[in-house]
Amino acid sequence: MDPKELAQQVIDGNRRALARAITLVESARADHREQAIILMDALKASNRVALRVGLSGTPGVGKSTFIETFGMMLIREGLKVAVLAVDPSSSRSGGSILGDKTRMELLSREPHAFIRPSPSQLELGGVARRTREAVSLCEAAGYDIILIETVGVGQSETVVSQMSDLFLLLLAPAGGDELQGVKRGIMEIADMILVNKADGDLKAAANRTCADYAGALRLIRKRSYDPEGYPKAMTVSALQDNGLTEAWTDMQTLIDWRRAHGHFDARRARQAEYWFAQEIRFGLLGQLDREPLKSMIAQLAGQVASGDITPSHAAHDVLTALREG
């Protein structure tokens, strides 16, 4: 299909076209990349702006349950919700289960919801390489809220902050103390910390964990794009649907403040610059998979393995050839 025609179908809200468009932008084929660029340029005409919410947490914290309960609540308020779930890829086989959608049985049947699992393809940072473009596609398709679920592996998932307006960090009860909370990395980019599973026997532990992290947040240097009281920590129970309404109210308060003070648009402008630089890096790395550099690298790799040349020397030769080529 012509990329411009596909773009119009996405703007018109065609779900099948949206799925095809995401498949196109995720493809690594050179001809597909050219079509994807035309597609993304054509989508700029929609001028639609959705709220992009990044969400991360360790495996087992209840991200999928939270997304389903939270998404259903948003749909009851008349909003359209898109979920982009990034699934870890195997370092041995390269495959991914892509099973997040099966955990969202109610949300997956909703006509006002769109769920798309994607493989991480061993990309670092918790998101796939083309998640940002998938977010833009869902935005152009008319979805009001886009939830970006990261792989969920630990404290280094900071890339999601470069494609979201709001970043939520889900924690499990008894998941750490104040010292754990002041560690840099993912804690510094969190806008709200939600201690999930605050129900039953875990409720007391969840309250203690929330208090520990609330104290830790007060020790982190205040950010210029936060109003008083943010970032904040609170308890929720996705299983019993407790605390989600209050969390959504606090999210809206934060976003409204950022819009009113110019931080919302400024953040998106910085994100665009970041992804421009990333695209250049991706392009330069792609040059290494083409001839004659590909053969040169294979030859040098053998010399490095046999000890005939040091890794630094071999890398210098490759970079020199890249500059002169």
Automatic annotation (TrEMBL):
UniProt key word Kinase: yes
Manganese found in the keyword field: no
Key words, A-Z: Kinase, Transferase
GO cellular component, one term: cytoplasm
GO molecular function, one term: GTP binding
InterPro entries referenced in this protein's UniProt entry, alphabetically: GTPase_ArgK, P-loop_NTPase
Pfam families found in the cross-reference section: MeaB
SUPFAM superfamilies: P-loop containing nucleoside triphosphate hydrolases
Family: Belongs to the SIMIBI class G3E GTPase family. ArgK/MeaB subfamily.
Protein's recorded name: Putative periplasmic protein kinase ArgK and related GTPase of G3E family
